[in-house]
Sequence to fold (252 residues):
Amino acid sequence: MRKRALITGATSGIGKEMAKYLHQAGWALVLTGRNERVLKELAAEFGEDTKYIALDLAKRGAAEELYRFCKGMRIDFLVNNAGFGVFGDFLDTKLEEELELIEVNIRSLHILTKLFLRDMVRRDSGVILNVGSIAGFATGPMLSSYYASKNYVVRMTTAIREELRRRRSNVTIGVLCPGPVNTNFNNRAGVNFSVKPADPVYVAHYAINEVMAGKCIIVPSLAVKAGIIAASLCPEPILARIIYHVQKRKER
Fold:
């Protein structure tokens, strides 16, 4: 039986490139995202063994609906890729948008990780890749909710990793932590790139190869690795000031 991967946020960017890469490697796929038209196109391209469901993970109950949709299908690889950012001073950003961000970036990711992880641990096999960010290692003025959400993703993933190690489980979990990637993220957040973004094809392929090899924290470039190390050495107040000025350069 072909192994099957579930990818959230599969209609664009890193998620779409991961879907293409896994399909080429012979995986069966379950795809989800908000754009039903693109999901249909991908399913037609990949073949009848591709399942899809159009969902907005910002809506309460969508994560549970996705899990129910996958009942009866063995999910060997879960990619929690869906996520977005809200740019601006915390006092000025819209509460409704921030709550939707928390629903997608944290709550839905948490639910899907827990539900599918339980299934994987019971059969002692499976892989989960949570998509974090370099933002998960720092504080982020002007993108405060986004940075906070990615800190949650990084810390939860690394904690689960240790718990699985102590169980001697054969289930693997990792977190992808890229810098800027050439996706629709900045358009949705309403900002401009301040540095040259990475190629989503490269990032997608690198992430899948690394998590399959058992890597936990997956950083797809030397520059981003250097940034994470620098952030860990920099006093928090100074780091916040530096990041504020970096983010201000993105303002449209």
